[in-house]
Amino acid sequence: MRNADRGGRSRLSRTPPRWATVAALAYAGLCSSFMFTLVVPLQAELPRLLDASREDTSWVVTITLLVAAIATPISGRLGDLFGKKRVVLVLLALLVVGSVIAAVAGSIVGVIIGRALQGAVTGVIPLGIAIMRDVLPPERLSTAVALMSATMGVGGAVGMPLAAYLAINADWHALFWLAAGLGVLGVPMIAWCVPGDVLRSGGRLDILGAFGLAVGLSGILLFVSRGAQWGWTSPLTLTTIIGGVVVLLLWGWYQLRAKDPLLDLRVAARPAVLFTNVAAIGMGFALFSSNVAFPQLLELPVASGSGFGLDMMQAALIVMPAGIVMMILSPLSGWLERTVGPRPLFTAGTAAIVLAYVFVLLWSSEVWHIFAANLFIGVGIGFSFAAMPMIIMRSVPAHETGASNGLNALFRSVGTSSASAVMGGVLASMTIEFNGQSIPSRAAFDVCFWLAIAAGVIALVLSLLIPRSAGEQRPAFPN
């Protein structure tokens, strides 16, 4: 690892103010997470708006999840090699370009291309966490990381009512112009408020490793996200999953032998890192399960026996407070991490998730039941998302922080993609007839809650398997 001189680091640590650095990075995180729910209010209308089939318009959502999962670990490695701030600026620029392409597009192809570029910006969250490790003192790191981690849920939860408002009151292109404006504002904030990079790793970008990871992950995520629509046993579906697994196995074999691998799998295989990453799948699944199930449950007609009859805006406002809770809890999460360590905090977060879904499984006859359960989910996600990066950073070398946090974000993306596919499949297959239309039955939502409970329990068990020493060691900070 090549270190900058101490005098240069000292100058960079004095300016700009650390609070400005944290605020700028958190803003970038909010922008990236907003991209996941940007088009959620439009999903039902996209076939009409884009003059395309429902199968084709589903790619407007799927492509963002795919690109986010693939780009996040790659952008983390690029940040370790060429400078994290520089890569964050590039990702924000891609957000702006993609948003403009989608805003001016006259066909579904342009919208899908724009949404793909928007998905790449997800890499700013693990990069932001890595920057915080580089520039913040240990006593401020936990709270800052908790705030940055909270943006993963806050941007989507708070952005959903805004997206719903624009979808109801403005042309749909306004959503993409809004996204472009957010990205344009983020570029100078990062440029002025984030210090230059002082820590970079040696080596080069593993192009073959990046390509192999992209191909393998595409196969896995296509199976997860499109399997229900294509048919789980169809030749296309089986080809994607088998091909993806084979490519990832070959990729792992190559990574263990490469001189400058995209990711050091020996570090990723450490128990603390491995258990945290696998548990991250469950946490991602639990988070997105509520984003899929709760809005539909709230909006379905009361007379159908399945829902509460709220409109799009009202449902978004019921879901939104979970994100606000995550933001408010970030100082408490940081204090708890410093006091008891990240492992107990992670366990508490996973336990809160399980309790939230058990609550809504037993009591979901009133709107306030959904509201209360969603608040518990906000607590659980807030605690667990704050703990995971700290566990990772206490277990990997400083020069691999970006790539390792990017891998953790990848596992969360697998969880969110899985939730979108599985929950969507359950709600589409367990239906009743109402006014000539098929809508999800009440039993379908119960199955969704059981699945979320199972994901939370698995994450809870894995959190208990994380070695205690990982929660007791302090992160290694370079001089």
TrEMBL record:
It is a multi-pass membrane protein. Gene3D superfamilies: MFS general substrate transporter like domains. The chain crosses the membrane at residues 20-39, 59-75, 87-106, 144-168, 174-193, 205-224, 230-251, 272-294, 314-333, 345-364, 370-388, 444-466. Coiled coil: none annotated. InterPro entries: MFS, MFS_dom, MFS_trans_sf. Keywords: Membrane, Transmembrane, Transmembrane helix. Residues 21-471 form the Major facilitator superfamily (MFS) profile domain. It is found in: Cell membrane. It holds the Pfam family MFS_1. SUPFAM superfamilies: MFS general substrate transporter. This is MFS transporter.
